[in-house]
Amino acid sequence: MGQGVPLSRNRDFRLLWIGQALSALGSTMSSVALPLLVLVATGSPVKAGIVALAGNLPFVLLQLPAGAFVDRLNRRMVMLVCDLGRALAAGSVAVALLAGELHFMHLVAFAAIDATLAVPFQLAESAALRRIVVDESQLSTAIALNQGRAYGAELAGQPLGGLLFGIRNFLPFVAEAIAYLGSMLTVLALRTPLPAPPRTRSPHLLREIKEGVTWFWSKPFLRWTALFVSASDFVINGLFLLLVVIAQRKGTSEVEIGFMLALGGAGGVVGSLLAPLVQRRVGSMRLIVAGVAWIGAPMIAALALTTDYLSMGLLLGLTLSVWPVWNAVIMARWLVLIPDELMGRVQSAAVLIAGAPVPLAGLAAAFLYESLGAVGALLVFAGIMLTVAIFATLNKAVRDADTPIDADRALT
After folding, report:
1. What is d(CA 320, CA 47) in angstroms, rounded to the nearest whole number?
2. CA distances from 176 to 22, 123, 161 (A)
3. Nearest to 118 by CA among 170, 165, 70
4. Measured between alpha carbons, how far is 279 from 246 in angstroms, rounded to an integer?
5. Rounded distance, CA 93 to CA 91, Å?
6. What is the pLDDT along the chain (412 residues), one digit of tens a residue?
7. Distance CA 216, CA 46 (A)
8. Which residues of 345-375 are buried (b: 16+ CB within 10 A; e: fewer)?
9. Alpha-carbon distances of 229 from 88, 352, 355, 385, rounded to whole Å
10. Which of 366, 322, 349, 309 is nearest to 232 (CA)?
């Protein structure tokens, strides 16, 4: 771990990135295969919804306690245990399918275990990233590359998961298990020390959670940007379902809908690659945070002017192309601001605030579509984004964030 080492020569960052690319690809494949498996095995959309709920609840219920535990433990060990547990869970589904003994509750348990272990893993990975990438100026680039990894996994993993499921239904779960084992190997190979932060008091879960939440809420930049991310992620996630519904109601084929969504994912990949360049050229935190929302609002409104799947896909891609810049600069500043001994707990509070409304986005999109129609629903989402743009422009905490932070001091 060295100050000023370029990311291209940062061995541990490359290892972590490769491992998580494998992990993301595996989990994306199974996320496609799992609902298909439930529907094929049971024929019940309700049961598919129960499995989806089991996969979503841990994000909300376990985020804060997971943050406290991550701050007690060696971050490498947390990642290894979580990878191993997820590999065993995915492997158990594959074995049950091969044996012809798969039951519905097994799939519910798999979804819950996979999601439960993902929560502390992601918190520990972010804490590890802050140790591996010391130079603050490289953090936003690292986060942008991680976002590109996620978009790329979605683009490749969805069709691959469907293809493998079509060949043999157990193959996506075998691939997921292998991907997690590959991630384990890369975590084992990291040279950067990732010890548990030093403790001055005996463990107490509620007190530790309160310390993290209190510290998070006392920092205006963290508090406001988490709220901005919450609103924008709600819009973006609702937009996906809304566009699918609009296209489907207009008679667009499944292949064309898939291509429309792929254009959106491609825009995210391009934006991730361009995010470091944009940040260097623009420089101002305030201009980026407010500017992305100002760009997103009219693009979302413009979707109301067309029902052609190709035009909607291109507009979706353009919208998503600016979001990696937003996420990179905000999350990089979070990692610099948060002390290492509070990293898990404060991150968990920020992530919970930012992500808690997202599971409701699809339901909100469906309700708005049925109540207001396609144009009305899109204009509501555009209005939410416009509200974010106005508040971000006027927000003192965002304006003050243009003041440089000493990255070394932030780590102590």
Report:
1. 32
2. 9, 20, 10
3. 70
4. 34
5. 5
6. 445 567 778 999 999 999 999 999 988 888 878 888 888 888 776 787 788 788 888 888 899 999 999 998 999 999 999 999 999 999 999 999 999 989 999 999 999 999 999 999 999 998 899 889 877 778 878 888 888 888 788 778 877 888 888 889 899 999 999 999 999 999 999 999 999 888 767 778 889 999 999 999 999 999 999 999 899 988 988 887 788 788 878 888 767 777 787 888 888 888 888 877 777 777 677 888 888 899 999 999 999 988 888 899 899 999 888 888 888 888 888 888 888 888 889 989 988 888 888 777 877 887 888 889 889 999 999 999 999 999 999 988 888 776 554 433 333 3
7. 38
8. bbbbbbbbbbbebbbebbebbeebbeeeebe
9. 33, 11, 8, 10
10. 322
φ, ψ for residue 195, nearest 5 deg: -75, 165
Amino acid at 121: F
Backbone angles phi and psi of 201, in degrees to 5: -135, 160
Residue with tokens 């919450």: 230
Q: Where are the alpha helices (DSSP H) in 100-219?
A: 104-132, 136-167, 171-188, 205-218
**Token representation of residue 133:** 């990438």
List CB contacts of 56: < 8 A, sequence separation 6 or more.
115, 359
- Residue 43 φ then ψ, to 5°: 70, 15
Rounded CA gap, 369 and 364, in Å? 8
Contact (Cβ atoms closer than 8 angstroms) between residue 304 and residue 354 = no
- Sorted by sequence, the CB contacts under 8 Å of residue 228 that are 6+ apart come out as 289, 293, 330, 388, 391, 392
- CB within 8 A of 137, min separation 6: which ones? none
Q: Give the separation between CA 144 and CA 271, rounded to whole angstroms.
A: 8
Q: How far apart are CA 337 and CA 404, in angstroms?
A: 11
Query: In this structure, what token pair is assigned to residue 375?
Result: 């144009």
Count other Cβ atoms within 10 Å, centred on residue 209: 18
Structure token digits, residue 386: 């416009």
Contact 149, 13 (CB under 8 A): no
Overall pTM > 0.90: no
